[in-house]
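Internal tracking record. Fields below are filled automatically when a chain is submitted to the structure queue. Please do not edit lines marked as system-generated. If the sequence contains nonstandard residues, flag them in the REMARKS field before resubmitting.
Queue: standard
Priority: normal
Entity type: single polypeptide chain
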Amino acid sequence: MKSYAAVDLGASSGRVMVGRAGPDALELAEAHRFPNRPVRTPEGLRWDILALYAGVLDGLAACGQVDSVGIDSWAVDYGLLDADGALLGNPVHYRDARTEGVAEKVWASVPAPELYAATGLQYAPFNTLYQLAAAQGTAQLAQARRLLLIPDLLTYWLTGEQGTELTNASTTQLIDPRTREWAYDVAARAGVDLKLFAPLRQPGDPAGLLRPEVLEETGLRGPVPVTAVGSHDTASAVAAVPAATGRFAYICTGTWSLAGLELDAPVLTEESRAANFTNELGLDGTVRYLRNIMGLWLLQECVRAWGDPDMGALLREAAGVPALRSVVDAGDAAFLAPGRMPERIAEACRASGQPVPGTPGEITRCILDSLALAHRRAVEDAQRLADHPVDVVYVVGGGTRNALLCQLTADACGLPVVAGPTEAAALGNVLVQARAHGLVGDLADMRRLLVRTQPLTRYEPRGDTARWQEAEARLAVR
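SYSTEM-GENERATED OUTPUT FOLLOWS
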């Protein structure tokens, strides 16, 4: 067995995990966890990238000696470097308002159907392509000589070497999912200079060695390699789905819910575009065909507004609220921005003529029912659009701790739900590093190892799905 540091950065917190992996063993322990608090500056909402890097260094120091380091994070956001390699300001947060109305300007050069047929990316206002369009004409972009996505930026600071990892690059809306290379025509028509990007890397590729200064600060003995992993956290999480066959759907739960299928080829039809499905790249030539759903962000924002009440008590209260009394569209961009989330959910229920939830328990039940309903829609739509039936839904990530959400998802989908592992992104990160060192085999071998070593919980669907169909109809007539 060898030890691997998995840096896993989420939109609300970061963690550095230590994984020990071998042919018949897989263990994971938390070395360090730290908050990820965006900062609203006069220019807009920004990531505190220096605090994140400090958290990474503190985490590596807490790991003890490791054989490799891998980094994954959320997608689409980036830092810009000048000709000397210095960072030009804090990276812009994907929830910043700068991309409002920008997509229509891009579509004037590359119509939305052509853009989807070329890149397979769903419309989201914060896609990197739209962020770059919003930055056109700024002094910062004019001065930039390199663009590095967040995991690649931190890797650069650790090693001094620059690259663009493919699974994360596939979220920029600048990659052709068929060739797994840059979409040169799209970039040219949209006015994006692809020379800004460092060369593409594959998961498992070497990404450099920790710099001497990093070794000194963390107390690690060199050489310590950094290995490119599925640096989009969803790519790492899907790699850690403990599936036994290909007939599965997955839901990666956390701040976002990413619900869909693992395919061998992208689905680039106009019907798929209209359903707002995305084709992102995964390990070993796979495609993550999925829909982005607002996820537990809705509950996180409510809990913040309520002053961080006890989550166990809140979920028990929610479990006692009548099912499907009120639901909202969990994919609605109206819920994207932070602030006033309980009031905004109540307003959405009022506007659709449903009972207005008032207590924290009622609002929580509305959120969880709405998420389960969104999971149902995504799983059903994905099967139909890809002509790929499934027998089971795997739920991985932070939402596995929410037994009520897992059970409601099984009920809504009418399929068994297998929940776990919770730290899927970190485990996928570790497994790619271990595979690069020859300790585990292909993706199927990785998943067999997960089944043997990780705790999993199975939820059977209760009742029929008629009441979920009725709730679906309520949203359809809004």
